[in-house]
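Q: What would this chain look like folded?
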Amino acid sequence: MIKISCLCILGTAVLFSSCSNNKSSENKTNNTAVNITSSNAAKNKTSSNSVTNQSITFCNTTINATSNSTQTTGSDTSTSTASENSNIKKLYSETSRDTKLEAAITSVYKISKGSTVRYLYNKIDLNNDGSNEIFVDLISSDFVGSGGSSAAIFKIVNGSYVLVSKFTLVNTPVIVTNNITNGWRNLIMCVSGGGAETHYALLKYGTNGYPSNPSTQPTVNISSINGTAIISDDISPNIGLEFTVN
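A: My prediction, written as C-alpha cells:
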C-alpha cells in the first residue's frame, strides 16, 4: 500500500524548504571510533527481533509495510514488503567516523583548513564485485540548498578512496535498485525543492559514472521496486558525523 504524504528531504539546519519533514538539514553517519547518533536515530536503531510496522518515506511517497526486523546500530537488514510487491531493504547510515573517507571528501571538494563538515554514509556493493563502495551525503550548510545536498560515491582501490561520481540536489533516502546498467546498480533519487515538481529520477551508470544531477534524469514510478534504501535515518538537527579539516 502506498500512501501519499507531504514529506520530502531538503535543506540543512539553515536551509529548509519544500515538504515538511525531509532533508531538513543535517547529516547521517560515518565510520570511526566516535559514535554520534541523535535521539531519534538511536531510537530507530535499538535491537529487536519482532515483527514491526515499517514505513520508508521517499520524497512524498510513504511505503507502509510489515517486516521481520532485526535492527542494529549502524546498518541493518530490515526488509519491508509493500502490497505493490516492493521489496526494500532499509539501511541506516554508519555510526562511526571514517578518517580515510573524510580525507577523500576534503581532497575532492577542496575544503579549506578549519572548515567543519557533517556527513552521513553507507557502505554498499554497487558493482557486484564483492567489495563495498561508499555513498556519502554531505549535509553541512556549505553543501545543502533548497533542492537537496551534495553527495559522492567512492570505491576503495588498494586501500585508497577513489571518486566514482559526485551528485547535487540529493534527497535521502537513496534507493539502490537490483537492476544493473553497465555493471553498476541503478539508483533512484527524489527530486524536490528549488522550484522542481516532486518526482523520482532514475540514474544509470554510464561512461562517466552516474549522472551528477538527478533533476535531468528520466522520471520513474516506484510503486514496484526491489533494492535497498540507504541513509534511511530519521532526520534531526544533530544527526550525522562531523570532522574539522586540519
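The first strand starts at residue 2 and ends at 4.
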